[in-house]
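Hi R.,

Here are the chain sequences for the assembly we discussed:
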Amino acid sequence: KQEVTQIPAALSVPEGENLVLNCSFTDSAIYNLQWFRQDPGKGLTSLLLIQSSQREQTSGRLNASLDKSSGRSTLYIAASQPGDSATYLCAVVRWGQNFVFGPGTRLSVLP
Amino acid sequence: EPEVTQTPSHQVTQMGQEVILRCVPISNHLYFYWYRQILGQKVEFLVSFYNNEISEKSEIFDDQFSVERPDGSNFTLKIRSTKLEDSAMYFCASSPGSEAFFGQGTRLTVV
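And here is the predicted structure of the full complex:
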């Protein structure tokens, strides 16, 4: 059974810092890994999708990497801003199966 | 930009009542999902739907739950005889086969 963990559980940083969020999964036979952002009481906004054949994806100040063999992904946020404050979730999926989510990292960027 | 739409955004129901949560997936997507998130907990998979039938369901998705695609566009989750522990945010998602797109959720409160 696939298990997804995320470290740290919570993170508080001053504005402008670069930061790294970590995601680990136990079954490396994944098809995709997707990073989401969730604001309090809101839905899930897709940030980046990394397909199993890819090693990284970039969107603006966000960069996500994937190492399937070690069961790890990292989300790098450059020059953090208070508007980045949210919970960040990673989810993995095998072909034809459901997405399995991690518990999330709650990020707070202080002005 | 196409999006997944869920209604209602918030529903309060008495214990023992039936509720129907509605979702309009992105057109031309093939895979549909329901997830739930109890306050402060992980996003949990309930059921996936493909080719007009359930493709996978979790142990949570027991006889109390059912899904339908009544008219080829809407996708509904019915919860019969609601219990207090059914209180959660329910998310619908659709996918063309790779990236998942989530709705803003329905917050269900059972009193």
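The interface with chain A takes residues 33, 35, 41-45, 48, 50, 55-56, 58, 89, 91, 93, 98-105, 107 of chain B (CB under 8 Å). The mean pLDDT of chain B is 93.

Let me know if anything looks off.

Best,
T.
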